[in-house]
Amino acid sequence: MSFVTPDQPRRATDARGAGDRPPGRAGPPRRVPAQRAAPSGRSHAPLAVAALVAAGGAALTSWLPVALVLWLFQLSEGAASLLGAVRAGAAGWLLGHGVPLTTTTGPLGLVPLAVTALAVWRLTRAGVHTSRAIGARGSRSPSRTLVAAIAVGVAYALLGVLAAVLVGGGGLSVSPVRAGLTLAVLGTLAAGAGAARTTGLAAAFAARAPMPVRAGVRAGLVAGLVLLGAGAAVAGLAVATGGGDAADLIGAYRTGVAGQAGITLVSLAYAPNATVWSTSYLLGPGFAVGTDTAVRTSEVSVGALPALPLFAGLPSGPVDGLWSAAVLAVPVLVGMATGWLLARRLVGPAGAERKPPWKRLLAPAVLAGPVAGLLLGAAAEAANGPLGAGRLAEVGPVGWQVAVAAAVVTGGGALIGAAATRWLTRLAG
Predict the structure, then answer these.
(1) For a 10 Å CB count at each end of the chain, is N or C smaller?
(2) Whether residue 212 has pLDDT greater than 90
(3) What is the pTM of this model?
(4) In terms of domains, do 121 and 262 share one?
(5) pLDDT surpassing 70 at residue 30
């Protein structure tokens, strides 16, 4: 006979497993020790916060240099103030995004493309930061890429509306609706480019594109950039030869060192515009410096120009003889070099063993022309605009004319260069 204390049955019951209990008899509830849940991953910032912070950073870093330059210009006139620099910087910042300003002398719509390039670069980085903040990096998701781009565009549009309201007054006004819509489109497109690169969507689309399309787009972009480089070289040479006139124009303002520094920096902000104008000059359509004016290799018809250093390097007359042929040959040579590089890339170093079919070689060369035309046409359209009412209502090249000329010249030159390279490679093999 055994004696069992009251604590022994409880211990025996607790020691038994669920499989030892008689069927139909429930045991006492078991206490499971609380465990900390394993972290599922890195916490992400809310979309609205990430987009607003990224768009605000992009706006601040592109507005600050403009405000500083215009503050220097105001300092020379003895009218510099913090509020004046902020308002002038906001006006120049909006103009750099393509938002026209309404002044007492007429509309001001000639965009400083240096400010545009800075803003687009910062917006691209804003798209990168936003897509990373919401955890979309490497996701290859079109929806998350689009959401990040639209969020940055909406936040940037709100900042544009605030800037337009701040600018109003003092003989200068900006449409808040126009500012919001323009900055929304630009912000969405630029941020979308950065987001697509971060999520991997751009790489996925490029991998799925056919080889002739990839090669043609790459060749067209290279040709367009080389033509812009040639235009920059010609513009720089023109400014160097007319540097004395530019220095005299800057000195004529009598604004002191700070004012002259401000005028010089404003001129540098329009240096990309001069590059596009020079490229249009090389392609043939040329550009205008006022209504009923033309600056081409075959014709230079200008009247009285404002005392701006931007116009100091204009040619004094048409180019004749061998110089005219040399200038017009530059775009053709760029196109032929593009075709040569394209053929060398497809044929490869062992040209005797690798001879791609004509279709595979010439299709990218044909596509390179329209791609270069679209690039240069868009640049020309962005580089023109009014400098007031009346005579200076038309300044810059015509976009569609530059696009057509670039497409024809680049495409034709690329065809000639690619075909000649393949033919010479076959002879060498």
Answers:
(1) N
(2) no
(3) 0.83
(4) no
(5) no
Q: Given a cut of 60, is residue 19 above it in pLDDT?
A: no
Q: Identity (one letter) of the amino acid at 358?
A: W
The count of structural domains within the chain is: 2
Q: What percent of the chain has pLDDT over 90?
A: 51
8 Cβ neighbours under 8 A, 6+ residues apart? none
- SS3 per-residue string spanning the chain: CCCCCCHHHHHHHHHCCHHHCCCCCCCCCCCCCCCCCCCCCCCCCCHHHHHHHHHHHHHHHHHHHHHHHHHHHHHHCCCCCHHHHHHHHHHHHHHHCCCCEEECCEEECCCCHHHHHHHHHHHHHHHHHHHHHCCCCCCCCHHHHHHHHHHHHHHHHHHHHHHHHHHCECCEECCHHHHHHHHHHHHHHHHHHHHHHHHCHHHHHHHHCCHHHHHHHHHHHHHHHHHHHHHHHHHHHHHHHCHHHHHHHHHCCCCHHHHHHHHHHHHHHCHHHHHHHHHHHHHCCCEEECCCCEECCCCEECCCCCCCHHHCCCCCCCCCHHHHHHHHHHHHHHHHHHHHHHHHHHHCCCCCCCCCCHHHHHHHHHHHHHHHHHHHHHHHHHCCECECCHHHHCEECCHHHHHHHHHHHHHHHHHHHHHHHHHHHHHHC
Give the C-alpha distances (Å, rounded to integers) separating 369 from 50, 146, 334, 335.
40, 30, 11, 8
Q: Has residue 160 been placed in a domain?
A: yes
Tokens read off for 115: 């400010």
Cβ atoms 417, 335 nearer than 8 A: yes
Q: Considering the domain boundaries, does residue 24 fall inside one?
A: no
Instruction: Please report whether residue 33 resides in a domain.
Output: no
Judgement on whether residues 336 and 359 belong to the same structural domain of the protein = yes
pLDDT at 112 > cutoff 90? yes
Of these ranges, 27-36, 184-193, 211-220, 331-340, the one predicted with the greatest mean pLDDT is 184-193
Of 208, 236, 256, the last residue of a domain is: 208
The predicted-structure confidence for 293-329, as pLDDT tens digits, reads as follows 899 988 888 877 776 777 777 887 888 767 777 888 8
Q: Is the pLDDT of residue 97 over 80?
A: yes
Domain extent for 322: 210-429
Domain C-terminal end among 189, 208, 227: 208
